[in-house]
Amino acid sequence: MAKTEDQATMSKIGKPPLPAPDEGIPASEVQLYANRVRVYPRAVHGIARNIKWAILILCLAVYYITPWIRWDRGEGRPNQAILLDMSHERFYIFGLTYWPDDIYLLTGALILAAVGLFLVTSLAGRIWCGYACPQTVWTDLFMWVERLIEGDRNARMKRDAGPATLDKAWRKVAKHAAWVGIAFWTGGAWIMYYVDAPSVTVQFWTGQASREVYFFTGLFTVFTYVLAGWAREQVCTYMCPWPRFQASMLDEQSFIVTYQKWRGEPRGKGRRDAEGLVGGQKLGDCIDCNACVNVCPTGIDIRDGVQLACINCGLCVDACNEIMTKAGRPKWLILWDTLARQDAKAAGRHERIHLLRPRTLIYVTALLLATSVMGAALAMRSHVNLAVLHDRAPLFVKVRDGSIRNAYTLKVSNKTDAPASFALVLGGLQGGSMALSDEAERPVPALNLDVPRDAIGTFRVLVYGAPARLADGSMNVSFTLRNTATGESTEVSSVFMGPPK
Amino acid sequence: MAENNAAGEKDSVTGRHTTGHEWDGLKELNTPLPKWWFWTFVATVVWGIGYAIAYPSVPWINTYFPGVLGYSQRNVVTAEVKALEAQRAGVMQKLKAVPLEEVKKDEALYVVAMTAGRVTFAENCRACHGAGGEGRPGYPALAGDAWIWGGKLADIQQSIVYGIRSAHPETRMSQMPKFGADGILKAEEIDQVSDYVMVFYRPGAPALPGAAKGETVYAENCAVCHGDKGEGKRELGAPALRSSVHLYGDTRAAVRAQIVNPKQGVMPAWNARLDEATIRAVTLYVHGLGGGE
Predict the structure, then answer these.
(1) What pLDDT, in 10s, does the model give residues B81-105?
(2) Does the ipTM surpass 0.90?
(3) Which of A19, A33, A391 lies nearest to residue B16, judging by beta carbons?
(4) Which of A203, A220, A246 is the last residue in one of the domains?
(5) DSSP tally for chain B: helices H, then strands E
(6) Whole-prediction pTM value?
(7) Selected residues 202-261 of chain A with any CB under 8 Å from a CB in chain B
(8) Which domains occur in chain B, in start order?
(9) How many independent structural domains does chain A possess?
């Protein structure tokens, strides 16, 4: 079908990726629901594959080993370097202990991750998808196992199309058993981030682990098996939201896996002579061998241009380089390049690489901003926290000697690793005094509050006062709390209420 | 699956077929949904039907379809409450056995007692004494330090168990004579003694005209219960007059009304309604409101 002018415009740079045209499908066979086309990726060797292996090994090593790293926090505290202790409401990350009220730091970390991803995508396309996304890493691992047991693309396709044989049966059983094994190992490692790794390992096999441990191990086992074994590229093309909006981060200056159409077309089989002629016809470098399609883990044809299902892994680059070498043509018919440079090359011009452009600069600025805000928040994170809650009923109580009593609930967080003694001083109320409600002692001007390490102390404090004037029935007071050991202090304001006078 | 005549149409820009759906001239390109996705949707519908059969679902007019599994949230709650009571039995038994003053030393027990006390107070006591024990005219404040019958744990416990002027034979009982209504004092004397009582109520303020004569009336009629200096007598349930906190109001009119025809508030005995452990819990809670002695 001849390309219309519109089509040419639409396939231009910067436009959203379009699905391939329905070439050659008769109108009567247009379907609203599509069968899944099974992808049988072929093994490939080359630079992208090597980088992919290296990142895969690194990611899996980090994932499986991290829970086993120990970190001494002293007696009675967990000694796991990274432990997300949900049941005790603490996140331990090496020397840092996070409380539930530090959740904004997690928000900040997620913002950093998101902006970082935007920056990387605007510079180098979806390399996250192609190299580091867990879906890619585990799918790659599962494909490697599949290849070990069932052979490469052609052997697998042949066996799948053939009759049921003993050979087919044992290979399928062995493959799925291996997958389930890896999936279980994955699920088991996951739970170790939430409970102590060595003890949960023992508890798991002796039947003493909690129901949650078994449940989540099972859940992650099932999902790893289904997503990496069965769903694979369907996750990337249909389930994941990232491909849906990645187009808004890409522009014509982003490095993406690109087929050099100007060099490859018109494609055609056959060995080219010195002038690039086959049988007297001038052809491009693409010999239409389909190697790039056969190695693609999502089963697409990169020669159709940038598209939603392309995860930018570059395995087609490796595949094409192998073929070009064999065909005696220059390598890099498929390579990482920008659309702008491709346009220029097609027109015989040279185009610079633009790493610094408004889009990347904005992302870098946002990243720096978020990093410094996060850094400051982390550095200035307070280790003493005071929350003051004035009693709602009664707002005040009149006592026999004519003075007014207000009651407050004070929550004192001691985020340090040592038991702390806090001095509580009342400000703003002339002659005011304080007492703890559950200790029948005479009110004193300052109180001493003891809080164990890494804990919150709750105190009901009675404040007695006889203010000369209470204009609207209330006045401002303040509580100053000071850790007597570290000197760190915090001040919280509240109100003292009484009958207006 | 769905076939449509218009689906044959091809979009000139993309080269793709349309689904045949059209809105104001905008046509939808056909991007086939994977079949597994469609079947997943069907599976959720099937699951939903199964769920509706198994569990309570369809409302009738007066009742509802209960589901074949016989599940009922009410039964679950009943079972949970029963289990909770069984679980609590031990600690409530302990609360009965430990002397009230000792409870605070057992932190876990004290937390249970205060929690049980708070809930019990909210259900039974707050209607009169206020949500935080702040009281209101005629109903004593429990959060303050002015106690008519005493603010020690044992005093509070006794007031709760037997009540005040209640029907229980062991009830706390005090009866102020109706000095006006029964003609014990003349109107003039009542005015004088009212003036005198205001000296207790407002220390430092200029004395009212009848205060001097009222002092004699007070000494002859009131001091026996309320004390020579208006300090009150807890063993008789006679409130302190030399105080800033008064049950029936701070004004002279309120004082006079109380001498003429005194209000006699009643608190029921709670031993018939609450079990012993619960009364002990609410005793500790009231004591901890801020005024416990």
Answers:
(1) 999 989 888 999 999 999 988 998 8
(2) no
(3) A19
(4) A246
(5) 11, 3
(6) 0.77
(7) 234, 238
(8) 75-171+267-287 (1.10.760.10), 187-260 (1.10.760.10)
(9) 2
